[in-house]
Amino acid sequence: MKKVLVAEDEESIREFIVINLTRSGYTVEQAENGAVALEKFAKDEAGFDVAILDIMMPEVDGFNVCKQLRAKSSDLGIIMLSAKTQEMDKVTGLLFGADDYVTKPFSPSELMARVDAVYRRVEMTRGFRKNDTTGETIVLDEFELNLRNRTLAKNGSNIELTQVEFQIIEYFFKNPNAALTRTDILKTVWGNNYFGDEKIVDVNIRRLRMKVEDNPSTPERLTTIWGLGYKWVTDNN
Length: 237
Fold this sequence. Notes:
alpha/beta, four-stranded antiparallel β-sheet, about 40% helix
């Protein structure tokens, strides 16, 4: 069962989303505000695959809902809904742990492409974690990436990653000391048919640096290649 939590206070938009999700084979739970969304998630935490959260909601806003849901689950796919004028809100949502965002107004095809992509990533991550954890690993200096159970450890301590963050790290670890363009990262992680812009890559890099770097403001591992993209630097580069 593919289950989605939709939190949107505007009834017409919420119904539009629910209709399109249902037509595409998803089971949907609706919430008219952030407080109800948190309530419903708490009752059926293991049942949800994706959460779609409007930013501007009464009771509890989308940012706080996102932050609380991400603290409860690293596997859950989270998509934020934002208005065109809310550019900084998109960045904030991603930093709070969202996987993607959709800008209003949006078409049914755009919405479903985003939901399907996030759902596939969630299923892939959960599928790996159900298997034996003794699978292939990549070790780079103080970091160890386990490709079977989808985990990253630094000096033996586990680093909690979302599925998007893991895919980005996996791409870097398979290409150490190579300059990877934003476009390459976008296509590898989000797919060739991604509707959004490359800013989502930059925000996820910022989020990853806060998790893997000793000093995120002066990164030594996940470095910027100005005008191009990013590189994972090893000691013997």
